[in-house]
Amino acid sequence: MDEFLRSVEATLFASSEPLTADEIGNHVGEGDVAAALAELATRYQGHGIEIVERGGRWHFQTAPDLAYLLRRSREEPRRLSRAATETLAIIGYHEPVSRGEIEAIRGVQISKGTLDVLMEAGWVRTAGRREGPGRPLLYATTPEFLTHFGLASRRDLPGIDDLKAAGLLDPLDEAAMQALGQLALESDGEDD
């Protein structure tokens, strides 16, 4: 293994958080970081640890089929309320989105606590303010959202057909998803 490839591997291993290719390049100097990452990802494939890319950031992770071995105590999964789940979905599919837009899509007001829970989980962040009356805060997902849900990018979020096939939409949810799709089409048309 050449010295540059070893440097990229060592940088990723020593980092406490996922790194972009540019950040890795700042540590290791000149060279084809993207090619090195691709080669390392291939070399680690099928091992107990893998090198993966999530949201443009690279990191080591335990192979998903072996993660259970490392859990010493049973983690209690954090259950989100229906309001938090719906809010997270709206933000994921429509970001950046304001509180008013979230409420318009859901058809009900959301409590500040709902957004706080999502922000404390590290899945949602503020993303500036919309230009317009009142300059409302905008919300977007974070790289931690992508990592937690195993997504490389937001494009990997399931579509309505995927949700139907998984049996995750009841007739009311399906009508809501169609309304979401209609809202997305209308907002895309406004940008023209």
Structure description:
The protein has 192 residues and is an alpha+beta fold. It folds into 2 domains: 3-70, Arc Repressor Mutant, subunit A, CATH 1.10.10; 82-190, Winged helix-like DNA-binding domain superfamily/Winged helix DNA-binding domain (Arc Repressor Mutant, subunit A, Orthogonal Bundle), CATH 1.10.10. It is built from 9 helices and 5 strands; from the N terminus they run H-H-H-E-E-H-E-H-H-E-E-H-H-H. The chain has helices at residues 3-14, 21-28, 33-44, 82-94, 99-106, 112-120, 143-148, 160-165, 171-190, and strands at 49-54, 57-62, 97-98, 124-129, 137-141. The strands form 2 sheets. The chain has a 3-stranded antiparallel sheet. The protein has a two-stranded antiparallel sheet with strand order 1-2. The chain is globular.
Q: In percent, how much strand structure appears in the residues?
A: 5-15%
SSE string: HHHEEHEHHEEHHH
Rg, Å, rounded: 20 Å
CATH architecture of the largest domain: Orthogonal Bundle
Number of helices: 9
Tell me the CATH superfamily of the largest domain. Answer: Winged helix-like DNA-binding domain superfamily/Winged helix DNA-binding domain
Structural topology:
Elements (H helix, E strand, L loop, with lengths): L2 H12 L6 H8 L4 H12 L4 E6 L2 E6 L19 H13 L2 E2 H8 L5 H9 L3 E6 L7 E5 L1 H6 L11 H6 L5 H20 L2
Antiparallel strand pairs: 1-2, 3-5, 4-5
Helix pairs in contact: 1-2, 1-3, 4-6
